[in-house]
Amino acid sequence: MKTRVLLFVATVAMPRVVGAQHAAQLTPRDSALHALNRLAYGPRPGEIERVARAGVLPWIDAQLAPEQIDDTALTRRERDFDVLQYDRGDLARLYAAVQRARQERKRMGDTAVDQPDASPVAVKGRRLAAQVQQLAVVRATRSERQLYEVMVDFWTNHFNVYFAKGADRFLTPDYIEHTIRPHAMGRFEDLLIATAQSPAMLFYLDNWESVAPGAVPPQAMRLQARPFLGRRPALFPPPRDPTQRDSARRRAPQGINENYARELLELHTLGVDGGYDQHDVIEVARIFTGWSIRRPQQGGDFEFHDWAHDTGDKQVLGVEFERGHGMDEAIRLLKLLANHPATMHHIGRKLCQRFVSDDPPDGCVDDAVAAWRRTHGDIREVLRAIFHGPDFWAAANRRAKVKTPLEFVVSAARAVAAEPDTTPRLAQVVARLGEPLYLHVAPDGYPEREDAWVNSGALLDRMNAAVALAAGRLAGAVATLDSVAPATADPQQLIADVDGAILGGTMSENTKRVIGAQLSDIKDPVQARALATGLAIGGPEFQRR
Amino acid sequence: MTISRRIFVKSGGLALFSLGLDPLFLARAAFAARPSAGPLDRRILVCLFQRGAVDGLNMIVPHGDPLYYRERPRIAVPQSDVVDLDGYFGLHPRLAALKPLWDSKRLAAIHAIGSPDATRSHFDAQDYMESGTPGVKATPDGWLNRYCQHDREHQDTPFRAVAFGPELPRILAGTAPSLAIADLQAFGLRAPQPAARDRLTRAFEELYAGSATGLLSTSSQEAFQAVQTLQRVDPTQYQPANGADYPRGKLGKAMLEIAQLIKADVGLQVAFADVTGWDTHVNQGASEGQLAARLAELGQTLTAFAQDLGDKLDDVVVLTMSEFGRTVRENGNSGTDHGHATAMLVLGGPVSGGRVLGKWPGLDPANRFEGRDVAVTTDFRDLFAEVLARHLGARDLSAIFPGFTPDPARFPGAISA
């Protein structure tokens, strides 16, 4: 009786117990599977049972406090990635060395300059770049802080930069480590300011060269700011074209560049229907004049250029920004945007898209917005509100999401207890399935909706990847099938084991029948197990989460 | 079916009227919207992206202008080497293989074409040329994909829109189904032996037929249909026709595979391939050299493709594009830097060829863009829109190029009316 009273009070004031109510309508196993499919990259062998035993709500609470989760196994594995030992400046120097070597070859009349550069410095550059992508896959696979890694992926796409655009080739790793990751579960406002001041974003959306019309750099600056080359060099694996480079001489910036201002409003904060107009975009761009990079070609940090800043009054969304406040004008604007109702709705909805459904119900979005307002944009409280709402647990939304290529590959690796190493094989599979990491050109990031990922070619590739993984043909990510199921001569037992370990007991009758028929003439239990596992991972049930 | 088609034609016509398009164009659009004879529309567009910004002035050479020679003392193509086209323009000598196609009016060039956006960044300019929205970076999809989204009359087969390469390019990104094929022979399930492969294919087909829902179901059906189709076509056994000899390399392979799909009649409507190596800042060369080698590969590939297709070329248009052109004046490294307008080629049976199209602004410094580059007199979207409308019969051009009002009066005239 006491519990009931508490529950009643809780629906008004403490949404967490509402979650208990809805989760309780599922079996402990089903709710554990659902939570592992949404807050994590799918279950590892035995994990459904562990979460079910401990209780799904305590597990969710623990995931919402990632700093308290021990993650030493991952930390050990991260030491293998030597790219983490390089800062922006180191990578910029490496990049410059590759460029110089390449120019030299070209000057010598080497007509093979468009071929991959085999010089040691270029090979090292490509290896490090591949590590950056593989590291994302390894963290998602290995980390105990699963929700945190999911959120890193979410924000990396929300605040997209393009790894292959000029200086972003050496600025992106730092952006992930020091801009996205420290703020992924913090306050949105801090994350927004961090991205606005990150060299990677300043370069990607051109704000670093946005200056008030007529502004002239001081002479000293002019000497220092050597013409910067926005190139696509051979340092990192070229996504499409290794040969492209920008004009050898870039003109001095001559006016405002609206690019960042527009995406800040449209994508990062208010949303396309957020109630701003072209005038606001221009005013935002004026506020951000002077937000630049110190010696970008050397991997320099954020720098505010007073000389480039527009000294007039500005007005955004009807709010006055009086002249004379320099870079504080933009800080004030970012804080305003971070907690604008349109922003709460835009990002709240996007989070619900990630965690609940491609077309999230209004109630779910309302809960997220209310939590945002209550906590001034504390990301973990917004998430808590989503996870404890009825829509998160509703039957219609379970297994409603199709996995992105990253989610598919990582969940497959987790399902078979693969231990990916620093070789880029898994990241390459993610790329082949359509999601080369950090290489989405447009600022909108990889989409949340299934129609972006489901097409005939990509589906066939998922099947191929599943079979290869289960058969142990993906070097660098060897499956440990003993943890999925013991090798057995009994096909029915094998199917039941695979169903339980890989699909959490959700395998359809059709899938059981088809796998059973395939096993009928296979005598070798090890081969049978690999085939059953490959079919289960490549099959339709595993494509959803 | 007939009724819905009629309504479609009618409403398409209305939409065009409101854009103020001419009656001839309207008739053309209505014509293009006729129910086709077979189950599949036969018109095909192949887009070929020259990534890196091709030097239009050394591809289609204005040899009749002394300024061209004055500005390029080391890299101009000597008049004696140019394959003359009309007394003023000529082909680079390494494109000579294309001359017969020019003479038979199946090849046209458009000069001084490019983007209204002034960027000289490869990254931005390619992005704009593929999204079809110069100056707007947030456009989520590419214009070829938007064409497929808006023209629903063409039957969706898995091979309707195919990019030849490991990743789907920006130009085909979007919600309409499109395929990236790195290697036609490897498309489908992979297994060491054919028997194992067939067995695996059947198993997955049954899994998806019985348990997949929603988009997973339709896409998997398309996938297995495509696998089956390719099995029938058997790409491993392909022999180019009419003695066509594709150059070795990625471009030749891509165009060979496109020809193969066209001849196999699998419903290919839009194909895309790209070729790199045009960013000739240093030692560009003149009649011989770096650029010449690239042009030779391009010319031989297009010639082989046309030969291989034979009569099928009557239904095909190949459109080349490049993000911008290069400086009129050669630089200090015997190369050229990033410029503005460039030249594009249009090849195929439906082409109104044998002409250099577009409005030539000349090389006079007073008429140059920012005093240094060939000015853009044809917005690339006018050419792309013409090809989509007059060749593929696209109606809703403003949906394909948002923020742009296509006007047949500005079409360069690349496709025979």
Most extensive chain-chain interface: A-B, 66 and 66 residues
Q: Pick out the low-confidence regions of chain A.
A: 1-17, 226-251
The CATH topology annotation of the largest domain in chain B reads as: Alkaline Phosphatase, subunit A
CATH class of the largest domain in chain B: Alpha Beta
Rg of chain B (C-alpha, Å)? 22 Å
| Integer count of domains of chain B | 2
Strand tally of chain B, please? 12
Q: Give, in order, the helices and strands of chain A.
A: HHHHHHHHHHHHHHHEEEEHHHHHHHHHHH
Helix content of chain B: 25-40%
Number of helices of chain A: 26
Describe this structure in a few short sentences.
The complex is a heterodimer of chains A (545) and B (417). By secondary structure, chain A is mostly helical. Chain A is built from 26 helices and four strands.
Describe it for me?
With 545 residues, chain A is mostly helical. Chain A folds into three domains: 2-63, no CATH class; 144-233 and 255-357 and 359-398, no CATH class; 405-543, no CATH class. Chain A is built from 26 helices and four strands. In chain A, strands 1-2 form a two-stranded antiparallel sheet. In chain A, strands 3-4 form a two-stranded antiparallel ribbon. In chain A, strand 1 (291-293) and strand 2 (302-304) form a beta hairpin. In chain A, helix 25 (509-519) runs antiparallel to helix 26. Chain B is α/β, with parallel strands linked by helices and 417 residues long. Chain B has two domains: 1-35, no CATH class; 42-188 and 232-410, Alkaline Phosphatase, subunit A (3-Layer(aba) Sandwich). Chain B has helices at 2-18, 23-32, 56-59, 66-71, 99-103, 122-131, 143-150, 194-211, 214-233, 250-264, 290-309, 380-391, 397-400, and strands at residues 44-50, 60-61, 83-84, 90-91, 107-114, 161-164, 179-181, 270-275, 316-321, 342-348, 356-357, 378-379. In chain B, the strands form two sheets. In chain B, strands 1, 5, 6, 7, 8, 9, 10, 11 and 12 form a nine-stranded mixed beta sheet that branches. Chain B has a three-stranded antiparallel beta sheet with strand order 2-4-3. In chain B, helix 8 (194-211) packs antiparallel against helix 9 and helix 10 packs parallel to helix 11. The radius of gyration of chain B is 22 Å and the shape is globular.
